[in-house]
Every structure is written in structure tokens, then in C-alpha cells.
Design a protein that fits this description.
Helix content: 25-40%
Strand content: 25-35%
CATH topology: Rossmann fold
Oligomer: single chain
Largest sheet: 6 strands, mixed
Order of helices and strands: EEEHEEHEHHHEHEHEE
Shape: globular
Number of helices: 7
């Protein structure tokens, strides 16, 4: 699914060239659950941005589902992101003036999906994250855990194959964080490829495959779905809706 070949990403800071990613080669297969760990400044968020097609590598080759994507136009990149990749961020990035339902609906509006289908899919998404009774609440009326549930529902509303989560529990208390990770893991059990960027070894250690980055280089890529039993695709979510 995701194939990175000799990826480098450099930035010019004054007269200094900073190597954010230094000759990274990595393959992530469909349905994997991968964590990318490393200290602050190690290059893990840069790697996420490259995988997410939000940033272009300075050199190297990136294949997504066998298709070279490093040379696509901006419009083509936007289409690939919209159809293949969902994003969950530490700071939620919800639109303050919109309700939970409207935030979830926004990607479908941009994709030109008709109003009737949007309404049905939003209702289903809210139910899946246990927020049916929060549909008309705006972000300032929701707790941190609820905000992240809305963000996850929005990320999954276009049914992407890949879900990228950048420090998804960074702004949450421990209980809400645990529930959010379990919710993300339930999506992986349904077949979504899950990649979590984190500096927290307790969060990263839950993944089936663990990648460690230091100074822009992969130092460890331990474990894979091939050497651990796969969870059943129809396994129920361990999350029980809470009022958090």
C-alpha cells in the first residue's frame, strides 16, 4: 500500500541545511497498525506529512497503492488525499462556528455528495462514535474526548483506506485518551490502515508494528501483521459511549 524508497526531506534554515528525513525506505501494507515514535524534532511529523501528501519529499520515491504520487499536481494530490486518507490531529482542528454534525459533513460537501446521503452518513458516523445526542453542539460545548470523537468521525466520513493520527491523545486526560485509542484500534480491526505518530511509548507500544525515528532515520521497525495474529474484521468496538 505505502512504499517509501530513499525518501529525503531537507529544509534550508539560513545557511544551514536541515535533514528532517534522511534516506528513509519503508513499506506499510494494507490493514497494518503502525506506530511511529521518536523524540521531538526526530522527523516523525515530517514523515507523517509526506505519507499524507501534505508535503513533498526533496528526493526519493513514494508509491501509494502502486501509483507514484510524488509528481502529481496539486489537484491530483487533493483528490488522492480526499479519497484515500483520513487525518486526526492533536488539536482537533474543528471549525468553531459549525456544529459537530456540520464539521463531520464538511468533507462530503467539498466532495459534492448530495444532501440526503450526507445526512444519512453523518447520523451513522455520530452513532458510531457515541455522540448522537451531541449533533447540534458546537466545539466549545464539547469535552476534549468528545472533540476528538467528532474529529475521528470527520476523518472517516469519506471511508478512507488509511487513517493518520498525529498525537491523537496529546490534549486529553488519561481516561479519554484510552477511549480514543481503543476507538482508533476498532477502526483498524475493520480493515483501516492505522498509523499513529506519538512520543508516548505506552501509546506507541500498543501497535502491532513499531517504527522508531531519530535524527530523520529509521532506527527500528519491529513487528508486523505477518508475525502476529490478525484481529477479526468484524470484532466489535471495545468503546462504550460515555458522556465524558
Amino acid at each position: 500500500m505505502i512504499e517509501l524508497e530513499n525518501i529525503r526531506r531537507t529544509f534550508q534554515v539560513g545557511e544551514q541545511t536541515v535533514k528532517a528525513l534522511n534516506d528513509i525506505s519503508l513499506t506499510i501494507t494494507k490493514g497494518e497498525y503502525v506506530s511511529v515514535m521518536g523524540p521531538s524534532g526526530s522527523g516523525k511529523s515530517t514523515l507523517l506529512n509526506v505519507i499524507a501528501l501534505l508535503d513533498q519529499p526533496t528526493s526519493g520515491r513514494y508509491l501509494l497503492n502502486g501509483r507514484p504520487v510524488t509528481q502529481l499536481s496539486d489537484d491530483e494530490l487533493a483528490k488522492v488525499r480526499r479519497e484515500n486518507i483520513g487525518f486526526v490531529f492533536q488539536f482537533f482542528h474543528l471549525i468553531p462556528r459549525l456544529t459537530a454534525a456540520e464539521n463531520i459533513e464538511m468533507p462530503m460537501i467539498l466532495a459534492g455528495i448530495n444532501a440526503r446521503e450526507r445526512k444519512q452518513r453523518v447520523a451513522k458516523a455520530l452513532a458510531e462514535v457515541g455522540l448522537e445526542d451531541r449533533a447540534e453542539h458546537k466545539p466549545d460545548q464539547l469535552s476534549g474526548g468528545q472533540l476528538q470523537r467528532v474529529a475521528i468521525a470527520r476523518a472517516m466520513i469519506m471511508k478512507p483506506e488509511i487513517l493518520l493520527a498525529d498525537e491523537p491523545t496529546g490534549n486529553l486526560d488519561s481516561q479519554s485518551g484510552k477511549e480514543i485509542i481503543e476507538l482508533l484500534e476498532s477502526l483498524n480491526r475493520q480493515g483501516v490502515t492505522l498509523i499513529i505518530i506519538t512520543h508516548d511509548s505506552a501509546i506507541g507500544g500498543r501497535a502491532r508494528r513499531k517504527i522508531r525515528i531519530v535524527d530523520g532515520k529509521v532506527l527500528l521497525a519491529a513487528g508486523s501483521d505477518r508475525d502476529q495474529p490478525a484481529a477479526p474484521a468484524n470484532a466489535p468496538s471495545p468503546i462504550q459511549p460515555t458522556a465524558d
